[in-house]
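Weekend entry, working from home. Most of the wet-lab plans are on hold until the incubator is repaired, so I used the time to fold the two sequences that have been sitting in the queue since the last round of cloning. Logging both here for the record. First:
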Amino acid sequence: MSERRLGWRAFVGSLGSVAVALALTSVLGGARASAQQGSSDGDTDIGASPAAPQVREDRGVGGGLGPPPARPEAAEREMASMPSSDGAAAASSLDGVEAIERALAAHPGYRATAIEVRRARDHYVAETWRWVPVVHLEGGFNVGNTPSLQANQSVAFPYNEQFQLVAEIQQPIDTGTMVALRATGSRRFQRSVFSFMAGMAPVTFNLGPGYGFDLTLTATQSFLRGFGSDVGRAEQRNAEAALAAAEATRDRRATELVRDTLQAYAELWYAEQSVVINASARDLAQRQVDEAQARLEVGVLSPADTLAFATRVASLEEVLALSEADRRSKATLLATLLGMPLGSEIHASSDPPALPFSVSDAEAVHLAVEGSPQLEELRAQVEITRRAARVAAEPLRPRLDAQAQVGLHGLGYDDAATPFAQVASFAAFTAMVSLVYETPVEDARLHAEEERARLAVDVAEERVAEAQATIEQQVMALLQQRGAARRRIELASATIDLAERSVEAERGRLEVGTRTPTALLAAEEELRNAALRLRRARVDLYATETALLAFVGHMLDGVDLPE
């Protein structure tokens, strides 16, 4: 895989403003000036927000997520009070880029695939050095007496000594050829004792010392089994294909990990936004209860109206508890992906990062077929199977080997220089040619092995075709989901605009005494739900486009994969 430069930080930044900037309002006196003053004090009111920005169809993949509103004090206190000593890790904040880097560095699943790439690369390097010359050195010294029977019915102990040095260099060639040059030097001495008949004294003979030097060149060539560079380089090519497959597996696993991390980060962002929105709504409802109580005391509101506000506070407390539990659950899921210990508390410090590639509907399927990491992995397996099929039956083929050898020899009696002079003058020359042939009586096993290898290739190709069809269907489904998410964003934005107006209208009617609090509470609830739906739709859009980016093989653009 080509080297990538870390480019995620270049894409982190402003993703567009949030459709609804929640602002605090107060119902005391119904004065808009008081509401604006309350909003400047840091509280967030879902009942007052600017008009939602229009959804742009030409934005980047991550452009659907905007900056979060400021957390209210209650939410800040809740997040700051996470356990940090009693068995749980201290709370930490990180952005999407840091989450990706930490996941790739710590996730055991990805680390295992990265190690497999290193193993495959080492294997390939080892196979490229298969055809280097091999030097063989050998030396030996043999000395001693060997008992032998004599004609005079006695036993003699002749003496023998022999010293030999061998140096050979072998050069394998990928065509099935082996060339070897062998040099042998020796020294021999023998003392023999003979007794020709009974009663005769034994006679001692000394042979040597003799010095020998032999130089032989041998070439062996296979013509059937193991012939040709396709067979000779098979292991190297298999190692190369295995390396490509290991890299494809690593890229697929990294793509899945980055995708899952970004989606989990976006879910955590949404969960924290839900806490902020629900906490703001609860705080607003609590202030409305206090204000209603004050109006009750002066006879402006009835006890039933005050009870409606109190009921809403209780309901929102339940909703807030659920959203806080959901936030903790999403934080745990992200921490698991990042390889953090159990009990770690993390927070999304910024919006999910924008993705570096925008996938259009027209090119999505084509890009997925061409660049899907899953398909690349399967195609690499097909190549491994094809290369294995080429040599699968090679050990079962008939064998026909030819060997040729030429030798130069020298031998000197009590003279170590004579053998070298004889070899240099070609005084003693030998040549030899031989053929070796062997074949099984029946070749049924050979044909069966060839057919089995061919079927393995067919199976691998069918798996690619099946995966391609599945990916095409999944991409089409994601495109439909993306269109639906974009439409939901538009509708939620419009709903927020209408809900804001409805809240203002109901608040005015309540203040003049023409409506009960029920209509205002219903309008505020609709505004809160619309704000949540807008963020939910944007997170769904982000998840969909992240999945599309993973399918088309651009998920790792700008990401440095750790080895």
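Second, folded right after the first finished:
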Amino acid sequence: MLYLAEASRLGAHGPGFDLLTSHAVVSLDAGLEIIGHGKAGIWDADVGPEAIITLGSDFSLSHWDRAGVTTHLADGVYHITLVDDLAISVAMHGDVTAVDRSGHVRWRAERAVADVPLQSGIVGSAAARLVIAFGNGATLRDVDTGRSRGELRHDNAVSAVALDAEGTRAATGDIAGVVRIWNTTTAALVATCESHTGIVRAIKFSSDNRSVVSGGNDGDVRICDVASGATLHRLIGHSHQVVTVDVAADGRTIVSGGRDGKPRIWDARTGLLVRVLDGHRGTVGSAQFSPDGDHILTLGVDGTARIWDREGMALGSLQGHGGTIFAGRWDIDGRHVITTSIDGTIRRWDPRRAIKTVLRHAHTAAITDLAVSSDDRWALTGSADRYAILWDRRSLQPIVQLAHDDKVRSVMFGPDSTSALTTEEAGNARIWRLPAGVLIARLGPGITAATYAHDGRVITAGDGMVRFWTSSGSVLGSVPLDYPADQLVLDPSGRWLFVRGTASSVLVIDVAARVALVRLEVRDRQVRSLATDGMRVAISDGAAIRLWQLGTWAPLAPLVGHRSPVTAVWFGSGGGLMSASPDATLVWGRDARLVAKLADTNAVLALAMSPDGSLFATTGGDGELRIWDAASYRLLLRLPGHRLPAFTLRLTHDGTAAISGGNDGRLVTWNLARRTRSASELAEIVRCRIPLRLEGDVALPRDLDFGDPTCRSLVLDR
């Protein structure tokens, strides 16, 4: 945001700039609530229903209420945990102390932890009224009195400890890599797990308390049976130390993170990798599931907190701290996130504000086609699972299912969006009344392509004919066709119909007269792609693109620049054209000169242009959506969404959203709304919300005035 404001001051403007600014402001808007601000950075925090305790970079322990009122509790503290209203800490010299919210010391166990801060810490359980302080050993202590309840004896220093939900079992890991399971009532050893080959850095019980997940310096994540100590799965993939692990509430999914900066999601039942989470730069110190298990919070030394769904889709990034985020927790309500940073602030975020993506597991097989109604109210998908589904476009709630006998090949709304046309592999086309999903007519068999004419009539190809039908399914006329067709394309005026198929030519039909006019020949054995802009038609010819003038059908200069066969062509704004092949995606000017090459190593599978021609979107084999500036062809945003390639993509007619369908069966929408902001507005947002200032191209810390009434009243999305 800081650099965008500076760019605006220097004259940056345009739709691409507005889109980037809108996305940056969204993240700030998610974290408008600043609970408190200290003079030092905040290394750690623990969150309770009424209060938050923090550990400052000056080793101070503080208590904060939800209004931001702070009480200094202690100095010289290294580790903290919150149990009910007691802040329990480990001091530099090894004392373990329990302090209430007023600063009153309830109890102190002197020199209870040796070798502080080397591999030490503290965990607690309100259910078992128990805390475990660990270092050279691990000691069980009563929360209310501080009395010892036993020792968990190790041969080596203890480096990680976890308690199960009831506090009846503890898992410990040591610097030799050994993981042990204990009964906390008797302090008896229950089981010993297979050892890591390095220090154990993180431990977590599964939700059913039957297994323990551990991560260590060897880069392994291991699942150990609590009762027997047997290794259930060894999860291999991290290239450096694993420092954080967590298990979803249903016990089916694990997330891990560490020094390689690439958190991983695993299937806990099979041990298989689900997804690598790309986005952080540098070590990821914490990865946590939300209480409902639907989202994952990751914290990185890059200064960001990121939100993902449990299958690894990036949903949003929480950016606003003026430096590294040291700690973060899901709040007690399970919907908000609390973070602390080197900048000394405690921020409470609403991740829903930062999430600009809605997804739906729409089909059980690949989505083969996608359409958006003219009023942007509905979306229609077709799938290999033999269904077409009508959706509410904004909420992605299904409205009606349209059953077919075979894989659905294409879907299309009628001109007024009250009807739909679908085709299937079995050779049938169907006309439906929407939104009820009533079948109006079934056309076929033998149909291989279909489309709506501009007046609402239907055109089909198959069985050696191009046929014209009324909107109710009555035949109006036909034109002979001597090759199998797989696509029917109308020019923007609706006058010319281009019939593409398994041939080295394209038949052109006059729609009004229903007569064949001309065949456009290419040298390749089969036309792979075709597009028209109302003045020209472009047809792929191997690695070349041939063009003809509409009406006169005079050939124009071919476009030569690809090394591989051209798989798709699209006309853009201003008469330009884009072409995709396995070797590159190229941009051509109206004068047939090569203008640009998209900076994208993924082959473009689908492209959609915004209504105003200022932006365009692409999808590729990696399942990501990319947003580009149509004037400069500069990549603006990369938005992950699909686990598999996405072949279908549309932008809404108002330009505020992109929607795609993937081979993973997902239907995904992204919010592309963009608002123009003046340089003065951007400067005000930065002044009130960004704890940084620029000196040249270097960002330096800056104190925010949290008492400024103009900042308190600033609403970023107004």
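Plan for Monday: verify the second prediction. The chain is about 5% helix and 50% strand.
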